[in-house]
Task: inverse folding
């Protein structure tokens, strides 16, 4: 069951002139829900609104936080996911018309959910090996920080990872700094010092990234900084971990010849779950 512009249907019809399909002219949010509650909904909503403004999409009067939340919940109910852990994707695309220059800046949306196995974040301690993906590079600009429908670097990088037996890859920007992972933000840990690339490096404006930075700032004895990460620093870390909305914190266990611990990730995961429960 799909929610297309507020109408629930099992057979949504998308035009071949859909601008999201033709030009990647769309933005989206992927959210985690627990028994119908959208985790960090306010942060997701304001990131979506900011992305739409940056792309000069016309924000409908009905796109209030309350209305979109109601649309998400009605979709979950229709899919039988209201009382179970679930992921939800809300995609907003510019209405059809024009080529690169749109004829219409108004938007449409669709929503669907998928069942998740666990209500809160768990620490995955299975082997998790990463490598650098160097076929293509991220531009360190504002567009790279948005969740748009143009994710070809992440798609080709994921294919590369699968073909070479890696669980994930780290993406470099055009300055040859580590910007992010294929499926989330990257954090580097040495002793009690943690850093993650700033948005100016082209990394995603991640919801869990933001939450974790705020959490770490309140922990005595641990310092966090938004600073560039050089590929040469990766093997000097005690820990590396990846964050995103669906998995929370994913420790990296191996990069090339270096194996990593997960003590910091385990400590922070409990604090992240506590914050998720509070809303």
Result:
């Amino acid at each position: 069951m799909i929610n297309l512009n507020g109408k629930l249907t099992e057979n949504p019809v998308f035009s071949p002139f859909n601008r999201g399909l033709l030009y990647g002219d769309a933005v989206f949010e992927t959210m985690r829900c627990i028994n119908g509650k959208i985790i960090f909904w306010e942060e997701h909503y304001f990131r979506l609104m900011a992305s739409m403004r940056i792309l000069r999409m016309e924000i409908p009067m009905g796109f209030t936080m309350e209305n979109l939340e109601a649309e998400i919940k009605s979709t979950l109910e229709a899919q039988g996911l209201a009382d179970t852990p679930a992921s939800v994707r809300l995609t907003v695309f510019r209405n059809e018309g024009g080529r690169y220059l749109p004829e219409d800046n108004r938007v449409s949306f669709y929503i669907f959910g998928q069942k998740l196995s666990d209500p809160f974040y768990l620490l995955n301690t299975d082997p998790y090996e990463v490598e650098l993906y160097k076929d293509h590079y991220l531009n360190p600009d504002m567009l790279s920080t948005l969740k748009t429908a143009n994710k070809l670097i992440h798609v080709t990088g994921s294919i590369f990872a699968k073909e070479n037996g890696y669980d994930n890859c780290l993406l470099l920007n055009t300055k040859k700094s580590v910007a992010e992972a294929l499926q989330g933000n990257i954090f580097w840990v040495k002793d009690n010092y943690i850093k993650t690339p700033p948005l100016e490096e082209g990394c995603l404006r991640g919801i869990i990234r933001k939450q974790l930075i705020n959490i770490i700032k309140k922990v005595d004895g641990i310092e966090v900084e938004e600073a560039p990460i050089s590929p040469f620093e990766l093997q000097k870390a005690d820990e590396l971990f990846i964050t995103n909305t669906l998995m929370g914190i994913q420790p990296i266990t191996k990069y090339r010849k270096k194996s990593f611990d997960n003590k910091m990730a385990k400590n922070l995961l409990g604090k992240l779950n506590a914050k998720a429960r509070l809303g």
The radius of gyration is 19 Å. The chain is about 25% helix and 30% strand. The longest strand covers residues 129-138.
